[in-house]
Amino acid sequence: MSITTTQHSLETVSYKHSLRKAFFQAIPNVLIFTMLGGVMFWGHHTGWKMPKVSEILGTSQNISGDWCASHLVPESQCIECQPALLPKDKDFGFCNDHGVAECVLHHPELAQTNEPPQLPKFDTAQAIALVNRPENNSRDTLYAHRVQFTSIESANKAGITVDIVGESAMTDVITANGELKFNPNYVGVLSSKVAGTVAFVFKTVGDDVKKNEILALIDSSQIGLLKSELMQHLVQLQLRKKTVERLQAIVATIPGKNFAEAETALRETEVALISSRQVFENLGFEIPGNLDANDPQQLAEQLRFLGIPKDVADSLPTEIRTTNLIPLRAPFDGVLTSMDIVAGNVVEASKPLCTVSDPSKIWLILSVRQEDAKNIRLNLPVLFSPDNGGQTINGKISWVNPSLDPQTRTLQVRAELTNPEKQLFNNTYGSGQIILREEPHAIIVPQDAVQATPDAHYVFVRDKRWFEDDSYKFFHVRQIRLGAKKGRNVEILAGVLPGEIIAVKGSNVLLAHLLRGNLGAGCCAED
Fold first, then answer.
1. Same domain, yes or no, for 44 and 107?
2. Distance (Å, rounded) from C-alpha 79 to C-alpha 383?
3. How many domains does the chain have?
4. Does residue 200 belong to any structural domain of this protein?
5. Does residue 295 lie within any of the structural domains?
6. 228 and 318 housed in the same domain
7. How far apart are the first and last CA of the chain?
8. Residues of 382-399 as b/e, b for ≥16 C-beta within 10 angstroms?
9. What CA–CA distance (Å, rounded) separates 176 from 249?
10. How far apart are CA 142 and CA 120, in angstroms?
11. Which residue among 49, 292, 409, 515 is least enclosed by CB atoms within 10 Å?
């Protein structure tokens, strides 16, 4: 009995839950149908007409009976619909040299300036051709239209602000990631030419070093044996020279064979000595030319610290003052950037022990995108800004790799930099700018003034008669060619001239107004 009651209770709870779920699911549908009913009610009472643009803008009192819906000005004053009110200038069409319609560079009379127009001080066509730049469609016809306002006040209410076209220095650059590297021609990885034990270390990492300065001494028994052989050859040379000299004095009284054998022995010793000297020179020692003039005791003392200056030898501890020492010398002026040995270390021949680098000579390696590679050439100026916030440095391209990197598909270029203050560091990353062109008198406008469609780029130039009492208030539509960018400004290579007034803030409103008037809805359609 209790089981049946429990099942009944569960069914009741489940039923109530289903009703609540269905109720909440139905709410969105009820709201939608309510809204549709409201729209139908509103449409029935308004004749299914949308609000007029003029009503949205709050100007309905001015447009009854005399209003151009396409251009939002009184129909009786619409210079687009009634061009006879203000005939357009001659259409010069598309300029292939500069890639714009109505080119003010070839036809400066089109410039909207009250003073004689000022043409660019540089070859704009050459600047346009320097790199790939956005192009305009020669079939685009928006430039032939004008964007009109009913008054200066209406333009102000629309949020239109203007600025004057000016001049400023601009540069065309290619940006590339870069890395600073010590010039490998001035990075010396040093090793001992013979196996042995580190006897003494004179320098530590970070120390400045001079060319041929001794960095460490290696104790090698092989050096001791070579010095012993050299000494034997030198002593033997002295003896055999004396023998030949003695026999030469009595050559007439002795068999010729004896003199010949003595001369042969002397020549053999000379050859052996030359070979022994060559071994030492290969090891980096400099052998004095008059060693064979010394007696054996002097010779032994001279060979004991061969290649080590006397002041250095005198400063060595007694226990390491042996004939087995070979110096490890700096190959050039620089800094000891690594030292992997301490006294007592056993070293192998040719194993790297330390590195000397000259930080005053440094390379900048830039990775240029494949699409920019065609613009790279030797001696182009380069600016490099390290990621660590260090000072910007400059140089010139000194080498261009003839091949693209097969992995990154970038072009490696190199600039050789000077670093006298040692403020640039090896393996520093940053951003490089390769300067293709520097123009001190570029024509510039704020970037906010530039508008674009899929076919072209434009600015809106205010008519020069704007403030005349009886003039029409409108903006000319100008196709432009963009150049370099810097900060909030952009260079205009063609399309406007210095001194012209252009729309900046609100220029997007002008573009929307222009496009609206050219959607094909019909000119001066009934509002």
1. no
2. 51
3. 3
4. no
5. yes
6. yes
7. 80
8. bbbebeeeeeebebebee
9. 82
10. 25
11. 49
Q: Which helix (H) or strand (E) holds 201?
A: strand 196-201
User: Quick one: 232 and 286 in the same domain?
Assistant: yes
Q: Which domain holds residue 165?
A: 83-172+438-516
Whole-structure pTM value = 0.68
Residue 60 lies in a domain: no
Helix (H, G, I), strand (E, B) or coil at 153: helix
458 & 500 share domain: yes
28, 120: one domain: no
In a domain, 314, yes or no: yes
CATH (domain of 135) = 2.40.420.20
Q: Are residues 101 and 39 in the same domain?
A: no
Helices (H), 139-255: 152-157, 221-249
Strands 162-164, 334-339: pairing kind: unpaired
Residue 458 identity = Y
Name which of 133, 170, 127, 99 is nearest 488 in CA terms. Answer: 170
* Per-position pLDDT tens, the chain of length 527: 444 443 444 344 444 445 455 544 555 554 444 554 554 544 545 444 444 434 433 344 444 578 998 898 999 999 999 999 999 888 999 999 999 999 999 999 999 999 999 999 999 999 999 999 999 999 999 999 999 999 999 999 999 999 999 999 999 999 999 999 999 999 999 999 999 999 999 999 999 999 999 999 999 999 999 999 998 988 898 899 889 888 888 877 788 788 888 889 999 998 998 899 899 999 988 888 777 777 788 888 888 899 999 999 999 998 899 999 999 999 999 999 999 999 999 999 989 999 999 998 899 999 999 999 999 999 999 999 999 887 888 899 999 999 999 999 999 999 988 887 778 889 999 999 999 999 999 999 999 999 999 999 999 999 999 999 999 999 999 999 999 999 999 999 999 999 999 999 999 999 999 998 776 444 443 33
Same domain, 313 and 241: yes
Q: Which of 323, 355, 387 is the endpoint of a domain?
A: 323
What is the crossing angle of helices 221-249 and 256-282, to 10°? 150
